[in-house]
Each structure stands twice: as C-alpha cells, then as structure tokens.
Amino acid sequence: MDNNPSQLELLPNETFMEIFQYFDIKELFQIFDNLNFRFNTLIRSLNNLMFKLYANDDIQTYNFISYINILTIYCPMYVNFIYFKNIRHLNLIQLTDDFLEQLNILNLPYLEDLSIKKLYHGSAYILYEKIFSNTFPRLKSCFISHNSAIETNVEFTYLPVLCNLQIGIINLRTYETILSVCPNLYFFKFRLKSSETSVNVKPHLNLKRMIIKSEDYPQSKNDYCIDICLSLVPNLERLSIHQDFFQGNISYYLKHDWYASIIARYLSSLCQFNHHLSVWYFTGLDRQIINIVDEMKRNFRNAHNKKYRSKFNFNLTY
Predict the structure, then answer these.
(1) Confidence band, pLDDT 50/70/90 cuts, at residue 282
(2) Does the pLDDT of residue 197 top 80, yes or no?
(3) Confidence band (pLDDT; 50, 70, 90) for 1?
C-alpha cells in the first residue's frame, strides 16, 4: 500500500488536465514548468492554451510563447508573429499595419480561426486578398468587421476547409464567387450591397445557416438580390434577414409577403426564419405608425405561420 496517497504527483494525468484548465498559460508555466519531465510533457501536450496580450506585455521574456494556441491582442502594438508558432485561434480587437505587413512573409500555417473586430477601410483589401488566396490553408472560421467591403478585384482561390464566414459588405457577384470557391461553407453572414450582376454559379448544397443584412435601397432591387441569394442555397435550414430603411419606404411592407414566396420556391428544408426590421422614423410615434407596425406583424404571421418556426423583430429608431 502506498504510504503517501495524498502526494500531488500520484494523481493521474487526466486529473491534472482538469486542474490545468483553471490556470491561464502564464500561471501554468510559472507553477508547473520545469518541475519534472512528466509536468513538462503534460503542459506542452495541451492544445487549448490561451493568452491575452496587452500593451505592457513583453512577450520575449515569456518561455511559453511558442505553445500558445489561442491569442487575443487587445491593443494596437507591434507583435512579431514568428514567436507564435502554434497559433490556431487569433483574435484581433483592432487590425494593425504591422499585422498586414507580416502577412506578406508569414502564413501562420496552423491558424483555424481568425476574428477581427475593428478594420480600417484602407486595410480591408489587403486582408481579404490574403484570406481568399488561401494564405491560411487550415482556416475554418473567419469573422471580419461588418463595416468593411470586399473590392471586386480581389482574387479568389479554392478554399475547401472554410466552413464559417462572417464578413462585411459584398455584392451579388462576390456572393456567388464565395459560394463557388468555398464548397464546405456551413454558416455565412454578410451585408448585401445592391447589385444586379450575376455569374450564374451552381447551387451550394452544404450551406445550412445564413444571415443577410441589407441597406436602404429600392425595395424591388432588394427583393431581386434576396431572390438570387436564396436560389443558390437549397439546403438552407436557418435564415435571418436584417433590414434598415427610412420611414418613407414603410408603406411598401404593407403589401409585402416577407419573402414567403421566395422561401417556398427555393428553401424546402428551412426550419427557422427570423426577420429583423429597423426603421429610422423622424416625425414621432403616432397612432398611424403603431397601426402600420401591427398590420405588418399580422401579415408576417399569416405569410409564415405553421410552415417553419418564424419570428418578426421590429425596431423603431428616431
């Protein structure tokens, strides 16, 4: 019988793995690194080591940099990504020129998830060009600020791994091109710019979830764009449409079927449809606008009721 059953090192590896989850990577290496071969091996075998980088951090003084898997950078600062050899998830609160420059010489070969919250307009082209040229060959998920726009001259490469894409402003041609080069795309979120240009690609059979945000432009053109978008994703299961417009266009929706006919035509597998409508209204909340909103809600329910789960959200902004 073991006379020291309470000794820490007698715990199984599985228990240590559970314990390690309560420490960030800096604490983990400070406490357990270089105690013995077993602990060195265990902490280096973890594949979800997270680190949050702030302006006052001197990364060259840390002995765990090359083992970080999930990196969040909270401020604009110079970061030499050559130190981060095993990054799989990268979160940038603000894109920096430094990161864009490094994209030309460093490809982060293990990167699976890229998230950028704030993106300057001038840097959008370079970033999108790198993403869609397969600079990150293992990239599965990509989130880019919704205010950025993809220019029409961006070169697109076949991206068989990408399955989650949330980006900024695109037109119909770019939408269709993305569907054609991302065959395994599962979730797609974007802001749609009015466009009547089409490249007539084949339907995308793997896309299951989509969120479309549209701007305030003539509603007939908006309906045309939505029709094209939905015609190419026949296996879609969850759809959300977000629209913003000014009060002058509100009467259009009293005779609108809320895309029910388009959905019936193309989306036989749809399980959930959400419509988010935001109206900029400048003359005050009077009885007339309240009655119009109530009528729109009734029309929405009648158009979609019992066909699939549906929800109408209305927001009035002054």
Answers:
(1) low
(2) no
(3) very low
Mean predicted confidence (pLDDT) in 153-181: 92
Q: What is the pLDDT of residues 232-269, one digit of tens each?
A: 999 999 999 998 876 656 666 777 889 999 999 999 99
Contact at 8 Å (CB) between 112 and 94? no
Please give the structure tokens belonging to residue 14: 């599985």
Burial of residue 4, with CB atoms counted within 10 A of its CB: 0-12 exposed, 13-18 middle, 19 or more buried:
exposed
Tokens of 107: 């490809």
* Residue 291 domain boundaries: 237-318
Name the residue type at position 77: M
pLDDT digits (tens, 9 = 90+) for 124-155: 778 888 889 888 999 999 998 867 788 767 88
Separation of first and last alpha carbons in the chain: 76
CB environment 288-318: b (16+ within 10 A), e (fewer): ebeebbeebeebbeebbeeebebebeeeeee
Report the C-alpha gap between 236 and 36 in whole angstroms.
53
Q: Give the count of domains, the chain.
A: 2
Residue 310 domain-assigned (yes or no)? yes
> Residue 176's closest CA among 107, 126, 232, 136?
232
What percentage of the chain has pLDDT greater than the value 70?
88
- The reported pLDDT for the residue numbered 53 is 84
CB 182 within 8 A of CB 159: yes
208 alpha-carbon distance from chain centroid: 14
User: Is residue 193 in some structural domain?
Assistant: no
Q: Answer yes or no: is 248 within a domain.
A: yes
d(CA 209, CA 235) in angstroms, rounded, equals: 9
Question: Which secondary structure element, helix H or strand E, spans residue 192, and what is its range?
Answer: strand 187-192
Q: Does residue 267 fall inside a structural domain? A: yes
Nearest CA among 274, 313, 263, 273 for reference residue 293: 313
Amino acid at 212: I
Tokens at residue 186, please?
């599962």
What CA–CA distance (Å, rounded) separates 133 from 286?
52
